[in-house]
Amino acid sequence: MTRSRRAVTTVIALILTAIMLFPLYWMINVSLTPPHLLRKDPPNLVPIDATFAGYDKVIHEQLPYLGTSLLIGLGTVALTLVVAAPAGFALAKLFPRGGSTLNFILLVAQMIPGIIMAMGFYLVFNEWGLLDTIPGLIIADSTLAVPFGVLIFTAFMMGIPNELIQAARIDGANAWRTFRSVVIPVSRNSVVTVALFAFLWSWSDFLFASSLNRGGDLQPVTIGIFRYLGNNTQDWNAIMATAVVASVPAAFLLVFAQRYVAAGVTAGAVKD
Amino acid sequence: MTMSATRTPASADRPRDGEGAAPAVPSPGERRRAARRQQLVAWLFLTPVTLYLVLFYALPLWRNVDLSLRDYTLRSFITGGAEFVGLDNYREIFTDPTFPTALWNTVLFTGLSLVFQYSIGLALAVFFFRRFPLAATLRALFLVPWLLPLLVSSSVWAWMLNSDSGVVNSFLQTLGLDPVFWLTSPDWSLVSVILTNIWIGIPFNLVLLYAGLQAIPGEVYEAAALDGAGRWSIFWHITFPLLRPVSAITLLLGLVYTLKVFDIIWVMTRGGPGDSSTTLAIWSYRLGFGGGSPELSLAAAVANVLILIAFVFGLFYIRAQRKALRS
Residue A251: inside a domain, yes or no? Predict the structure, then answer.
């Protein structure tokens, strides 16, 4: 391509990106628009008389929800890593009998629609006393990430040279030591990828929160937004301000962890 | 501890690591014991995930099947007992007028979402595959909609599609078109949620198909260019066929994900007005958790129909993936 044609391509790409990201711009625009201008026709394309009242409301009303989401997210990450990392190591390097059956079960588990899990969890948690609790939501949210986590860890740990593991063995390390001091440190990238996605999915969860935590004191931010939506007044300025704040983890991921994100999306689907 | 020290002929014969790599030649009995020990160690590492799958997958799923075969009422929560009614719940949902609507809406929602997500995603993947300034950055920005909580994207779209004050209708007006009652008209509610779902799904398709394009060796294109093939013919005769395995996986994964979609529809229309945007997932949720008296048994029956559909396509996906790995 010549230089001028490349420039034209970039301009087209910029326009396409702008169209794609317009809803995000609109979210920010509305979050800054004072309520009395929200119903103006035609709407203001830029926030004239910008107000931070919506964000003020977020800080006063949504902070507990955000804290709960953070807590559930971190819990989900911990549970997912504890369950998935050893499993990935065993499947990749220890040749367990029945390993391929387990792999198959994990693939199938990924496909179970959440509504089915929600219903089953509702009954089980009802008996275990986990309805409306944080541990209950952590367990439910982790089911979004554990099968994915095992698949990522298996794929990644397969790439660790056998020599490295044998060397640890010869030095007298047992399997657990090898896993802890050799395999985990060299698998740092996959740990980050799995942790990021586990957090993001748990942070975004609405289905489990709305079915398994209907009356709890501690509810995540998705429920906070949904409550606003359910209000008859429908204060869109505050709704969009909350939405902006709830998008922060995604934005953070994109800026600081983009390569892990792409790795996570393609893992399992395309083998390089 | 050097790498070369372990590359002895003994370990080369047995590339599998483990106790077998001991320097002395073991007797058959020792070897069997070592193998058994290795299995034990392997399954110790698999214990957490096995327990997890039993407690947090198998048990809820089983309870769901059990639930769908009983008549579970509010009283059952306290007493714990519920009458066994066999397939009555399934009979009831199959004869419910909502069933054909929900099934058809699920087909439309999934089918249309996939067709558009895939074709737009593919077009964008091919477009971004050309080298131009900012390509990588802009491609990364395209990921944002996929990373956002579904609840956030759906609320943004709900407001944009608002009949009176939405920016979409205001835009249509400047074009001289009549406003559309996106979320409140039975003719448009399904279109609205499909539009939103397409927007959310494009990044996923773009990333997977872009990775697929990267996997096609450059020489193929060079050879075609030498033969004087045009850009369009290269796409149809080379890129598209070579991309088939990745396309199959992308579409099937998209299908399994789209069948599950719940948040978008629930936030934007709650399946309404009437049943006009009710899919199987929405119907199941509405029966179980949608307010009013919970019909958990019926909800479970609907959910089990949905899982059957998901599994059928899920098996196709696994087959496609195996095939892609082999090639």
Answer: yes
Assigned domain for A254 exists: yes
Instruction: Please determine, for residue B12, whether its predicted confidence score (pLDDT) is greater than 60.
Output: no
Domain boundaries, chain B: 98-326
Chain A hits for B49, Cβ within 8 Å:
83-84, 86-87, 102, 146, 150
For residues A132 and A231, which has the higher predicted lDDT (pLDDT)? A132
A20 with A93, same domain? no
* pLDDT at residue B326 tops 90: no
A156 lies in the same domain as A43:
no
pLDDT in tens, B150-205: 889 999 999 899 888 788 888 888 888 888 888 888 889 999 999 999 999 999 89
Indicate if A107 and A139 belong to the same structural domain.
yes
Co-location of A78 and A30 in the same domain = no
Q: Greater confidence, B198 or A6?
A: B198
A271 found inside a domain: no
Mean per-residue pLDDT of chain A: 85
Give the per-residue pLDDT at A217.
Answer: 74
Q: Is the same domain home to A158 and A174?
A: yes
Mean pLDDT of B226-251: 84
Q: Say how far apart CA A137 and CA A133 lie, in whole Å.
A: 7
List the domain range (segments joined by +) for residue A201: 53-266
- The sign of the CA dihedral B205, B208, B210, B215 is negative
Encode B162-178: b = buried (16+ Cβ within 10 Å), e = exposed.
beebbbbbbeeeeeeee
- Backbone conformation region of residue A234, classed left if phi is above 0, alpha if psi is from -120 to 50, else beta: left
Query: A166 and B21 in contact by Cβ < 8 A?
Result: yes
Identify whether residues A84 and A139 lie together within a single domain: yes
The CA–CA distances, whole Å, from A96 to A137, A149, B21, B205, B309 equal 31, 18, 17, 34, 31
Is the pLDDT at A33 greater than 90, yes or no? no
How many domains are contained in chain A?
2
Q: Of A17-26, A149-158, A213-222, A227-236, where does mean pLDDT reach its minimum?
A: A227-236
Q: How far is CA A145 from CA A208, A264, B50, in A?
A: 14, 11, 15
* DSSP line for B153-191: HHHHHHHHT-TTT-HHHHHHHHTTPPP--TTTSTTTHHH
Nearest-5° Cα angle at B277, B254 to B104: 65
Q: Mention every residue, 6+ apart, whose C-beta is less than 8 A from residue A107.
A: A147, A151, B314, B317, B318
**How many A×B Cβ pairs under 8 Å?**
316
Most confident by average pLDDT, B74-88, B99-113, B230-244: B99-113
A95: Cβ contacts below 8 Å, ≥ 6 apart: B16, B18, B38, B42
Same domain, A107 and A36: no
Chain B residues close to A158, C-beta within 8 Å: none
- Asked, for residue A99, whether it belongs to a domain, the answer is yes
Instruction: Tell me which fold the domain B98-326 belongs to.
Output: MetI-like fold (1.10.3720)
Mutate to test the interface with A, among B64, B134, B168 (most CBs of A within 10 A): B64
- Do residues A150 and A111 both lie within one domain? yes
For the segment B105-123, the average pLDDT, to the nearest whole number, is 93
pLDDT at B327 over 70: no
Using CB atoms, which residue from B41, B151, B208 is nearest to A269? B208
**Would you tell me how many other CB atoms lie within 10 Å of the CB of residue A20?**
20
Q: What is the CATH number of the domain that holds A198?
A: 1.10.3720.10
